[in-house]
Design a protein that fits this description.
HTH_LacI (chains A, B), DNA-binding, homodimer, 434 Repressor (Amino-terminal Domain), transcription cis-regulatory region binding (chains A, B), six-stranded mixed beta sheet, 12 strands, 334 residues, Rossmann fold, six-stranded parallel beta sheet, DNA-binding transcription factor activity (chains A, B), transcription regulation (chains A, B), elongated, alpha/beta
DNA sequence: TTCCCCCGTCGAAGCGCTTCGACGTCCTGT
DNA sequence: ACAGGACGTCGAAGCGCTTCGACGGGGGAA
């Protein structure tokens, strides 16, 4: 293994000079830097990560905790993860993968052993057991998602309330007067998943503001549940012409159910969804939707973390504005 | 930060004794170990990962390279990743996440900087550009998937040839005499994805062996392509009664297409697939299938790596036996 | 009883890097 | 012309841990 002293000898300088040439933490003459860089290339020098971490107390590694639980859309998680890795690499950092399973212990372990400099936690619950730990840890962290009490933490996420509003406003703008939200399974609300509740709030608020008649309907996964909800809507809200779906696996079955009941989409019913673009795009009728900007959120989380590691103050809450993509599933009210 | 010398002082022993008590690399009296452990607990000692890595030249971190490319089923990748992390934790190791995007450079970087002790590479192509690098690296690695020339490497995967055979044998056992394989998109074969070709080999070999009439049909993703293949099969192989599908996204559309053309599954046509259980299970007709044992493969890869790190010799090729789950889509030939 | 060897422990020497203080040298302002 | 800086470099002191050789004491074999 070639080490910094080898490079130093080869370039005719001291090890500290090599270090400074590499880090830029002190001025080094152009000529010396050239020589050092040439030696590094020639010898194929690679600084030893462990030694570096020990001396600098910086590992240049971030921890990423990914969720495993049911009900979360795996491809989106993957997009997050990939964008986090990509963004981290831009800042010369690597990413250590932790599973939710390990819980708080995993976080504490990688933080306490100085394996990582900072942490990103996905899928935060409203009353997440890891929150006290994250507050107490001596390393910076960023949450993807918002807990009930985000004070003292740094959080980033799509602005789900605004997403809910945006869908309603889009429908209202098309002249729809009676709208319904088909939401996540009941247990998601019970569990206290913040974003689901925030969608409901945004949906309801916007409907009230726009003077629409609105209702909210949690829905299990699967075609059977979709059919039940469709029947219920048809029966109890016959004037319904606008539907917002916040429940990926149910989107297609729900549209199928409507059609099976003689309601054409978008002819009789305009449908908009909050879901990944791929889900919206590949449905039988491409669905007007607000996408989860996974890549943006991931990159944003890394940027926040880097700023914190740099000692900068960052906002506690970062809400990404939703963007609505109009597709074939929404039309003006007949 | 509490360090090993603090523990040593607190327990009234030398730092080396603490180290040995922790690692077990030298005998330590029961009584001393007790005392050391008590001190560790009391002080909340956590060994510094970087220092440990530097002194022992072992980071206890594995690299995992995940693919990003189109055409691979994301949930399966995630299952791999999670099972790798879980298995690694059982061996007191952590997992560093790398994306395919970084290519060979990423592998070289984490290996050369001693950030990781060993590497797991997913989605290996038949003529993968990273193979020479992996062979040259001074750290052990395990490939998930088989390249054309696996000599000198350690590989693990589902035995796709056997999976193809198993599907055929299942159909043959039910009395079917004319079978077809609906495979991956043509580019997958062109790209040289080993497992796709191995399925074809197994399928053809078993059909020949069983005296069946067989044919192979690559197929693009999407319902349109599925319909085309269905029509082609109906037209050119009217006696067809058994189909093997090795193409997740096409499975459902294909069945839909058959039904739309008046062919009932399994009444007229028995269908079996090589795909994740969730895909097979959630289809309109639950499909008899051979699953990708992602968790097994991931855990197996980690085990191989640990053995290699321990200095043991391991087989170059590990093929996991396919298991066929019979569901509603296959019945005896009428 | 004597010799050996093993058990359990210690001290010290690094592992490879960063960083701090120090020290020339050369430039600039007055 | 000279003090005061800024610049560029060096040496040495660690960062916290593992590991190697050494050593005293006790037990078994002869």
């Amino acid at each position: 293994m070639v080490k910094i002293t080898d490079v130093a000898r080869h370039a005719g300088v001291s090890p500290s000079t090599v270090s400074y040439a590499l880090s830029g933490k002190r001025p080094i003459s152009e000529e010396t830097r050239q020589r050092v860089e040439a030696s590094i290339r020639e010898l194929g020098y690679r600084p030893h990560a462990g030694a570096r971490a020990l001396a600098s107390s910086r590992s240049n590694v971030l921890a990423l905790v990914v969720p495993l639980r049911a009900g979360i859309h795996v491809p989106v998680v993957m997009q997050f993860a990939v964008s986090v890795v990509t963004a981290a690499r831009r800042h010369d950092h690597d990413v250590l993968l932790l599973t939710q399973e390990e819980g708080g212990d995993g976080l504490r372990r990688v933080a306490d052993t100085a394996l990582v400099d900072a942490l990103i936690v996905m899928d935060v619950q409203l009353h997440d057991g890891r929150l006290p730990l994250l507050r107490a840890l001596d390393r910076p962290s960023v949450l993807i998602g918002f807990p009930a009490e985000p004070a003292g933490l740094t959080c980033i996420d799509l602005d789900f309330a605004a997403a809910g509003e945006l869908c309603v406003e889009h429908l209202a703008g098309l002249g729809h007067r009676v709208v319904a939200l088909v939401g996540s399974p009941p247990e998601v609300y019970v569990r206290g998943t913040g974003f689901a509740q925030r969608v409901v709030r945004g949906f309801t608020a916007a409907a009230d503001r726009c003077g629409l008649s609105s209702s909210v309907h949690p829905c299990e996964a699967g075609p059977a549940a979709a059919r039940r909800v469709a029947e219920l809507l048809l029966r109890e809200r016959p004037a319904l012409t606008g539907v917002v779906v916040h429940n990926e696996p149910v989107l297609e079955p729900l549209i199928d159910a409507f059609e099976a009941m003689g309601l054409r989409v978008p002819g009789d019913l305009s449908v908009t969804a909050i879901c990944p673009d791929e889900v919206a795009g590949r449905a039988r009728v491409p669905v007007t939707s607000v996408a989860i900007p996974a890549a943006e959120v991931g990159a944003g989380a890394v940027d926040l973390l880097m700023r914190k590691l740099g000692g900068a103050a960052v906002p506690e809450a970062t809400l990404l504005s939703p963007r609505l993509t109009v597709r074939a599933s929404t039309v003006p009210r007949p």
